[in-house]
Amino acid sequence: MKKKLRSLYYKLYLVFASIVTGRPRSEIRADMKKARKRFKVTRKEYFKEKMYRMSYAEIVKLKAPPKKPKKKKPNIDVELAAELKGVSYAEAKAEMDALKQKYGMTYSEYNGERIFECRTEAEITERINAYVANNEKYIKIVSDDKGWTYDEAKAELDRVKSKYGYKYNQYSINRMGSMTDDEIAQFHKEHRDIYGALTERAVSESGMPREAIRRHMKRCFVLYGLQMSVYVALRAWEMSDEELSKFVSYGVSRIISDKYNDREQSEILSNKSKFNELYKDYTGRKFWVNRDTSFEEFCEFIDGQTEIFCKPVDSMDGIGAERRAVGDDLRAMYDELMAKDRLLAEECIVQHHEISEFTPICVCTIRVLNLRDESGIKTLFTAMRFGNEGVTDNFSNCGMVTDVDPETGIIRTDAVDKQCNVYEVHPVSGKRFKGFKVPNWDKVLEITKSAMQVLDGVNFVGWDVAVCEDKAIIIEGNTLPYLGLIQAPYIPERKGMRYLFEPYL
pLDDT tens digits, residue range 73-113? Predict the structure, then answer.
């Protein structure tokens, strides 16, 4: 009897539910059956909690246990800063978040600026002021190049930084102002693919988990300036901190530059047009800048030349550099060059014929690092760069570098490129590197030591020198020189070159 009553009540409730909701009884019955099977929902519970008003998906949301929120992975930069600063993750993140909120400084920039080294508020303030001043410089550069207001330039720099992670100086140096957003995205993807491939190679060769490798890569970059290609070539995961600390890095260059150079006078060397004007007795070539200049001044510069060398004033690593043939329509050429971002045009250099045997389409330059202290001017190291297939020899732009004996001018290593590939001979000409004696070596050393006398406040400079048939001329000077040029040739043998700079740190 009870069974019949329960069956009757069930049918009545089913009819009632169908009338109230307008849903077919078959549909309600099917949902009830699925709820009973998955969640053990009885008929009584189903009708009591008015589940007939719900779809099965809504019943699932009601009855399914709440998903545990995914635990957010610790940020690698914050972890590293906490370790190096000797504080908790939360304390490091709080300081980094405060600087991000106030100055827009990312976690990566915090470590790049080595804020973790600062132990007093005064030290932090000094680093922050330098960071802000550097950003202001690049905002102005982009503003001047594009004809934007300060706010427009800053908004664009912030947009790219937020979307792609590029710092202000990277935006300017890589000429991103001349790219569309799609081109920036493609540029970003290509670099991410390279980094991804290097990471996978390190994971495969080391047998370490990917996250562990990524953390170690970051640590080696921040502390020892090891770029990813160098990290993999060295098999840095096999090396101790003591071994890694023997490699020379950007941090070493910055310490010595801050110690020996006056910042205001150093800025003169970083501005290509100002540098060419001040050091015109050393550069040995005519130049022209496409700002505040007339067509008549351009014609005076171009007179007698069949080809000129053009490069953006504020770019690095040879980005945007090109050779331009001089045609008959000078007005059209002038208008075209004037429409570009700030550009420096120079008379083309004719290098020594023995050097041209390596590659005739590129001027191969000598990097001479000079330091002046109370005992006089020293030549700390010399290296020679070679282009591959491009018009520049920049190491960061497909070039190669060899170490040169400062006493004799003889190349004493094979060439190495940025990916740490080793070349016994030039890949285009087949000419052997090791044993080649750079012609006019005495003139190379003489002109760089003489150039050190121009500015009293500039005492640590990496000079780039071209060798001609009867002389040496200076291309440019760098007061924060890239020391990877002396380290790279010794990476294959895992030999650190920091010892060259220890006396000056």
Answer: 899 999 999 999 999 999 999 999 999 999 999 999 999 99
- C-beta neighbour count of 118 within 10 angstroms: 17
Query: Which domain, by its residues, includes 305?
Result: 286-347
Domain boundary among 325, 347, 369: 347
Same domain? For 221 and 87 the reply is yes
Whether the CB-CB separation of 385 and 485 falls below 8 Å is answered with yes
Q: Are 222 and 111 in contact (CB under 8 A)?
A: yes
Q: For the segment 304-347, what is each residue's pLDDT rounded down to a tens digit?
A: 888 888 888 766 656 677 788 888 889 999 998 888 877 888 88
Closest CA to 156 of 143, 137, 173: 143
Q: Which residues contact 285 (CB under 8 A, 6 or more apart)?
A: 346, 347, 348, 349, 473
91-111 residues labelled b (16+ CB within 10 A) or e (exposed) = ebbebbeebeeeebbbbbbbb
CA–chain centroid gap for 287, Å, is 29
Q: Which pTM value belongs to this model?
A: 0.74
Crossing angle of helices 76-85 and 89-103, in 10° steps, is 110
Per-residue pLDDT band for 218 (boundaries 50, 70, 90) equals very high
Residues with Cβ within 8 Å of 456's Cβ and at least 6 positions away in sequence, in order, are: 262, 265
Residue type, 269: L
Residue 375 sits in the same domain as residue 405: yes
